[in-house]
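User: Quick sanity check before I run a bigger batch. Here is a single chain. Can you write out its predicted 3D structure?
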Amino acid sequence: MITDADNTLALHFAATRQLEGQGDWFDVRRRARRDPRGHRRIFVLAAIAAVLLIASTATLAVGGTLHDLFFGRPAPPLIKKAFVQQNKMSRQMRDWQRLHGERPASVLPQIDAARAHGVVAVKTPDGPLTLWAAPAIGGTQQCWFVDFDADQHRGRRSAIGSGSCEQAPAPPSKIQWGYEWTITHPTLKELAGRLYVDAATLVVSAPGSRPRRIPVIHRFFVAAFPRAVKTPRRLVALDNDGRVVARYAAQGS
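Assistant: Done. Predicted structure follows.
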């Protein structure tokens, strides 16, 4: 059984992470529910562990972008509810900090869930993978939520999606991203995130795989990769003229 206290502690651990491209509170909840065993252990691992790497040289270009059919679509109630839940978690984190006399850590902003809308969807072997966005209340930050359409059934969800909000200040690379695998969709890994500059394309390079170009829509991006593809070591954002506008490189790359 997962209690509110467990959730709050998980958020506390997650908020102390300062790793660019990794870690957010939607992800904490998602990882906690993807294996029915050892909830408390998984909460801690979700907050402190890097994404699982599986050595392989296989690669596969998965799907095209469904931008024209999806962008601007009002989010369904299930997606709005996910943003509302994020707001609840943020408040829990602030309450936990006040109760324990801790200095405020990075807490995600309150989100205007009513304004959630579709940004980009991509085809995958498991059906469309979608990224939804919503603005922060009273601010300029944008938040997002990523999930598979197939996980929504008759007003209920069969799996937990993932997401985050813009960082303040922006990461040095100007690219905020995450790369993960879950047992709900065991053959795929998801790459998603936000750019802090205008760009048209993101070139993703992972060890043993050919570089892959994915589109950037209103500074957001999402893509699915085969599970065997390792965590990217380099991400390069290009504008419409092919010029580099942002770059992330792992140490040693």
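The chain is about 25% helix and 25% strand.

User: Great, the batch can go ahead then.
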